[in-house]
Design brief:
about 100 residues; five-stranded mixed beta sheet; 3 helices; 5 strands
Length: about 100
């Protein structure tokens, strides 16, 4: 099956897809904006990965400019603090972290 970024995934499917990308060492791209927000909020890549693998997809929104869906995951970071990660799936083996929210 060919991945189509213009089709919205169910919460269950996006969680499975993202967890597979993170847990199997596929490509997780961090945008410049996300790097800035991670620094401001004292998040490490490990915090972001923990939220993505243990948190849950809460919302989705179509990005007209990029022509893909972005998903917001909410969960706890490694310190137990609540946080959110906005991510878009690029293809079967990669995703882009758009931003992190504290």
């Amino acid at each position: 099956m060919r991945f189509d970024s213009t089709k919205e995934l169910s919460k269950k499917d996006v969680e499975s897809f993202i967890r597979d990308i993170v847990e199997t060492g596929k490509v997780l791209i961090i945008s410049k904006h996300a790097k800035q927000r991670m620094k401001e909020r004292n998040y490490t890549i490990q915090d972001v990965q923990f939220i993505l693998t243990h948190g849950h997809a809460q919302s989705s929104e179509f990005n007209d400019f990029a022509k893909n869906w972005k998903y917001t995951f909410e969960g706890n970071d490694l310190d137990g603090d609540t946080g959110s990660v906005v991510i878009a799936i690029a293809n079967h083996y990669s995703a882009v972290i758009i931003t992190v929210l504290g």
